[in-house]
Predict the structure.
Amino acid sequence: MAADIRSILVSVKTEKELIALAKAGDERSFELLITQCKTKAYNIALRYLRNEEDAMDALQESFIKIYRHLGSFKEGSKFDTWVYRIVVNTCNDMLRKNHNVSMESIHRSDEEEDEYTLELPDSDPGPQESLLQKEQAKLILDALDQLKPDQKEVIILRDIQGFAYEEISEMLNCSIGTVKSRINRSRSRLREILLEQNGDFFRLTNKT
């Protein structure tokens, strides 16, 4: 397998060429394309579903969809963004099936509100802070589960996975203005939940 990937890297240097080969039925090229974005795709699914087995199921289902619909991919877009959009949609489908959650439409215009930034636990804490930050992370994820699905997804994509507004706009098929408005409302609601349930356990700051 490693030799196969190396041979592709030698003979094919651009994503566009890999996509063309994959569309023509070259499974090695498809595998290499998926390998480049598999880790981030899994992390998105895991944050959504909070269960490793469910995340793997979502990832497997997503990759099947990607393979089947590769011919419809428009090469003017970024391949990895297209992949992440399919992963997001698959996770939402699983949540609806498992929890009978109704999704609210994201295709609406909203006035922009004051933007809040949630300071997530440091990914590299010192020894004395490690236990506290693990507890913080769990409380944040618990609070995320109390958000509406459309609110949860933008927090995951922006504040946890770090996608740009433009990428989220493409993934969710809505305007950048709508993305920013949804993020603002979602952060505000998450802030309310955390303050209601955990007092000032979390530090929240206004962002202009």
Notes: The chain has a mean pLDDT of 78. The chain is about 65% helix and 5% strand. The CA atoms of residues 94 and 100 lie 9 Å apart. The longest helix spans residues 27-49.
